[in-house]
Structure formats: structure tokens, C-alpha cells
Amino acid sequence: VPLDAPVSLIDPGPAIHEIDRNARARVTADASVQVIQAKRDAGEFDVFMCHNTGDKAAVRTLADRLLAVGILPWLDERELPPGRPWQAEVERQIEHIKAAAVVVGAEGIGPWQQQELDAFLREFVSRKCPVIPVLLPVAPKQPALPVFLKGMTWVDLRVTEPDPFDRLVWGITGDR
Question: Closest Cα to residue 71, out of 160, 164, 152, 170?
């Protein structure tokens, strides 16, 4: 650019920068959709969303946030095909999935959630997979967690620093 060129040619201005940011965001979102679809096609889920039914709405929101960053969560209502035995599919996931997020809300650990948690702890010891306690904003101040789960580092969605979502992603992927 010549030195005497109008300023508009040197600095395209904030509108161009905003268009560039939006374009990069679309490319990132498109790539994330492709990654998620490839994982789904291969049946390669990143994290099992272990939760109490009473926390379903919050778990859906958390699962959607994970999807947006390219992490494929296994959430029962989205992955269990109607008309088939659900326990066999849950067992299959427990044997193959890479991580478990044990979500704890106001009602604590539910009965089926406890069964899944027990299976994760047994299975994941040999495979060295993370079992991540995730405390929802509505979780009690001192949540009643099973002894083995208390020994895991928590992700506490009741705080803002350090960013709990970033910590969850780190726990699932191993990438800081």
C-alpha cells in the first residue's frame, strides 16, 4: 500500500474485522459439525453424561455446550433407540467410552446413576479413564458424594473462576 493511500485502504475498519470474526466462527462451527458427525458415525463418544433424571434439563444444556466445541457426549435420551433394551447399550458404552461426567444437582445421585457410577469406577480403573464429578449450580453446598467419587477432582459449575466449562473440557480431552 502506498504511503499516501487513503486510511480506508490501510485499515479496513471494524466492520471488516467483524465479518472476518464471523467467517472464522462459521468455519469453526462447520468443522465441529463434521468432527461430531464422524464420531457419531463411528460410535466414538467422548463422554458419558451420568446424571439423575431430575437434572435432565441442565444436562441437556451442558451436552449442547460440549457439542459446540467438538466433544460428543453420550446422553441416554439422544442415543438410546426406541424399542430396544437400554441396559445393554449403557453397558456397551461403559465398556468403551473414554470419560464419564457424573453430574450432581439438587437431588444428589439417583439410584440408576449410582449403578452407572459404580460400573464406571470399576471399569475405568483398569483403563485409566477420567470419572469427573460435575456439580451443577443447584448442587448443595456440601454435596453428598460417594466416597470414591469424593476422591476425584471436581468441576464446580457454581463458581466462575477458574472457568468450570474449560476445566470440564480439559478433564474429558486431557488437553488444557
Answer: 170
The answer for residues whose C-beta is within 8 angstroms of residue 19's C-beta and 6 or more apart is: none
Residues 6+ apart with CB under 8 A from 74: 45, 47, 48, 49, 93, 97
pLDDT per position as a tens digit, 88-116:
888 988 999 999 999 999 989 999 999 99
Residue with cell 466449562: 165
pLDDT band of 32, cuts 50, 70, 90: confident
- Going by pLDDT thresholds of 50, 70 and 90, the confidence category of residue 82 is very high
pTM exceeds cut of 0.85: no
CA–CA distance, 143 with 104 (Å, rounded to integer): 8
Looking at residue 137, what DSSP letter applies?
T
Task: Return d(Cα 139, Cα 62) in angstroms, integer.
Answer: 15
What's the farthest any 2 CA atoms get from each other in the chain? 74
For 110, 125, 142, 163, the CA distances from 105, given in Å and listed in that order, are 10, 25, 11, 18
Q: Which amino acid is at 35?
A: V
Give the angle subtended at the CA of 31 by the CAs of 29 and 37, to the nearest 5°.
105
Bridge partner list, 101? 49, 132
What one-character DSSP code corresponds to residue 153? P
The three-state secondary structure class of 123 is: helix
